[in-house]
């Protein structure tokens, strides 16, 4: 027999001996690519073949460690499990346009309202993910009982395992590293799970999610000492002492309508471009409202969801990732829960995918009675990221009119979303020299959203809703990212910008409109999104428990603390990444005084307290202690 023939027969023997693994790999690869296609109806990113193939290699590599019969059982079982996971993922996707996570499954009870809708989406075609396990079953038995002349040695098994495993891991690592470079917080914040799955495949997504879930739980498994718990509790008791009665209960019993506006950055307020106001409607409403012009966004890895989290709980964002994802199973003392205790109906409204930022789970944890997400709206017009602000706000008014009063409605807009490139949707707004720049596109986008907000607010007026409602409007976070900040500086004629100057542009407007335009004026108190809940607690005469923020209407503190550890007290600004202090008035760098050092240490402790609150679900323990 020639050399070639010997080689040929060896290869044939190798393929026959490992037919089970080859078949398994082909079937799983097919299923994963079919799933990838189903969640990317518009365009399948073919780069996903690499991480998908890598994830199959990794799984297959473990089978090399087993004897023939065990190996068959292992492969068959894994194939069945993956098939069932893909069926559940497809059902979840069809309803939420999202991917299930451990946290979502763990909080499945929180999704009870939609489980029937999700299961109603089961389609017979989806059983393609498991049909092979039925067809292959008889062959499995025959192949398993077939006499084996060759059983590889333990060394061979380990060598083959390592070869295949390391190959799979290295291909996978390359794909995951690329996505981590493109969107650094995505793997920990899991804000856009569908995008992540499209990039790295279903198995890798679940591996990342499982890793996040386990690492958070391992980190939090250490029980807090009773001294630490007592220290946190006394800090919070002290921080939540009532510090005044200005406007206390002023809005008690009234409806509360909070509108979180996507990327509403303060620099656009009361400004013109090419002689025309950028936000004429907000400017008009500011003149008949209480306006806070030193109000900062304090978001971190959770971006928009952090803005919601802070505004509704007065807890700092997660140290990494998104609290809306990592801590969605915690108990909260949220604004909705407190208003519900005062017999309010509470609803969150947002015209985008319910699973984005894990809102469908988190709003339940925040005790909202209902969440009107994308499926609750007629997506009859899209501007920017999805349902147009115009259509969202028009439809939302009709919903508000059906709510049992008093109600708390938390609305989150969408159209003015980075990179603000839907110029057609935004309509004509001349931005002069800023045309075709991020800044210029933003001005168009926020001008469009301002127009819709103006119509919404005027309609509330016409419907008589403003007469017995408190209306709160604020921006969720910056609009112009750091990489485009020079466009903003040139628009603002800022020369020699430094970190202090950058921070001074990280404000968002906070507008509080009272019935009959009462209490209007400009309040210069330095504050941030952490302070909204305590301020509303004062206005609605709600108890103040477990809040880290201050009541902006009854505080002489100008403290604003950011997740990065940076802070201001209204006179100095501390920039944590350069460990530098600035005098706000003079703009000069100043030395660290004992007083500033003490504040820095106190504020660092405070962030730690908030982290422990989240990591150890302390509100649940504190509330449990109360009921004893
Ligand atoms: C998505 C919208 C945008 O629902 O809130 O979130 P962002 O990308 O701004 O964090
Ligand atoms: Mn946002």
Automatic annotation (TrEMBL):
The active site is at residue 304. InterPro entries: Alkaline_phosphatase_core_sf, LtaS-like, OpgB/LTA_synthase_biosynth, Sulfatase_N. It is found in: Cell membrane. SUPFAM superfamilies: Alkaline phosphatase-like. The keyword Ion transport does not apply. Residues 254-541 form the Sulfatase N-terminal domain. Mn(2+) binds at residues 262, 304, 476-477. The chain crosses the membrane at residues 21-37, 43-62, 74-93, 113-137, 158-180. One of its GO terms (cellular component) is plasma membrane. CDD domains: LTA_synthase. Its main location: membrane. It is a multi-pass membrane protein. One of its GO terms (molecular function) is metal ion binding. Keywords: Cell membrane, Manganese, Membrane, Metal-binding, Transmembrane, Transmembrane helix. Substrate binds at residue 417. The keyword Ribonucleoprotein does not apply. It comes from the Bacteria. Belongs to the LTA synthase family. This is Lipoteichoic acid synthase 2. The gene is ltaS2_2.
């Amino acid at each position: 027999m020639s050399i070639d023939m010997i080689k040929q027969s060896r290869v044939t023997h190798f393929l026959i001996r490992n037919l089970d693994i080859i078949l398994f790999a082909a079937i799983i690869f097919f299923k994963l690519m079919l799933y990838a296609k189903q969640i990317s109806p518009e365009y399948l990113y073919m780069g996903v073949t690499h991480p998908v193939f890598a994830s199959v290699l990794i799984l297959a590599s473990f089978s090399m460690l087993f004897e023939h019969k065990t190996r068959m059982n292992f492969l068959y079982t894994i194939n069945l499990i993956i098939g069932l996971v893909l069926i559940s993922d497809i059902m979840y996707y069809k309803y939420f346009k999202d991917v299930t996570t451990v946290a979502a499954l763990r909080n499945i009870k929180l999704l009870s309202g939609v489980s029937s809708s999700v299961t109603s989406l089961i389609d017979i075609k989806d059983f393609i993910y498991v049909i092979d396990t039925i067809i292959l079953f008889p062959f499995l038995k025959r192949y398993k009982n077939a006499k084996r002349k060759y059983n590889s040695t333990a060394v061979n098994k380990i060598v083959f395992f390592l070869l295949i495993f390391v190959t799979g891991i290295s291909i996978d690592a390359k794909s995951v590293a690329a996505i981590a470079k493109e969107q650094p917080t995505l793997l920990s914040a899991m804000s856009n799970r569908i995008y992540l799955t499209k990039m790295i495949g279903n198995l890798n997504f679940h591996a990342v999610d499982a890793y996040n879930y386990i690492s958070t739980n391992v980190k939090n498994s250490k029980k807090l000492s009773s001294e630490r718990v007592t220290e946190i509790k006394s800090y919070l008791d002290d921080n939540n002492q009532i510090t005044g009665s200005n406007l206390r209960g002023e809005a008690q019993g009234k409806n509360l309508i909070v509108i979180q506006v996507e990327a509403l950055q303060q620099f656009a307020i009361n400004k013109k471009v090419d002689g025309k106001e950028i936000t004429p409607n907000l400017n008009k409403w500011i003149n008949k409202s209480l306006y806070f012009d030193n109000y900062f966004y304090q978001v971190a890895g959770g971006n928009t969801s952090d803005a919601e989290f802070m505004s509704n709980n007065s807890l700092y964002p997660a140290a990494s990732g998104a609290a809306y994802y990592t801590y969605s199973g915690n108990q909260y003392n949220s604004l909705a829960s407190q208003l519900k205790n005062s017999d309010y109906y509470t609803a969150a409204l947002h015209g985008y995918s319910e699973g984005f930022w894990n809102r469908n789970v988190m709003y339940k944890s925040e005790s909202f009675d209902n969440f009107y997400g994308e499926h609750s709206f007629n997506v009859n017009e899209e501007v920017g990221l999805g349902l147009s602000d115009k259509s969202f706000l028009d439809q939302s008014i009709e919903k508000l009119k059906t709510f049992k009063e008093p109600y708390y409605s938390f609305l989150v807009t969408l159209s003015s979303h980075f990179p603000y490139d839907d110029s057609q949707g935004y309509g004509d707004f001349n931005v002069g020299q800023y045309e075709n720049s991020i800044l210029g596109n933003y001005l168009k986008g926020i001008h469009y959203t301002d127009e819709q907000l103006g119509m919404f607010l005027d309609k509330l007026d016409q419907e008589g809703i403003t007469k017995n409602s408190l209306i709160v409007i604020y921006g969720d976070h910056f609009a112009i990212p750091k990489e485009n900040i020079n466009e903003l500086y040139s628009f603002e004629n800022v020369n020699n910008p430094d970190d202090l100057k950058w921070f001074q542009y990280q404000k968002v407007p906070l507008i509080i409109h009272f019935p009959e335009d009462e209490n209007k004026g400009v309040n210069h108190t330095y504050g941030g999104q952490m302070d909204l809940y305590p301020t509303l607690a004062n206005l609605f005469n709600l108890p103040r428990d477990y809040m880290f923020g201050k009541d902006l209407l009854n505080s002489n503190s100008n403290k604003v603390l950011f997740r990065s550890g940076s802070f201001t007290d209204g006179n100095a600004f501390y920039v944590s990444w350069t460990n530098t202090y600035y005098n706000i008035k003079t703009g000069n760098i100043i030395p660290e005084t004992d007083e500033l050092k003490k504040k820095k240490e106190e504020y660092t402790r405070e962030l730690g307290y908030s982290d422990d609150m989240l990591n150890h679900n302390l509100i649940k323990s504190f509330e449990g202690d109360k009921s004893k």
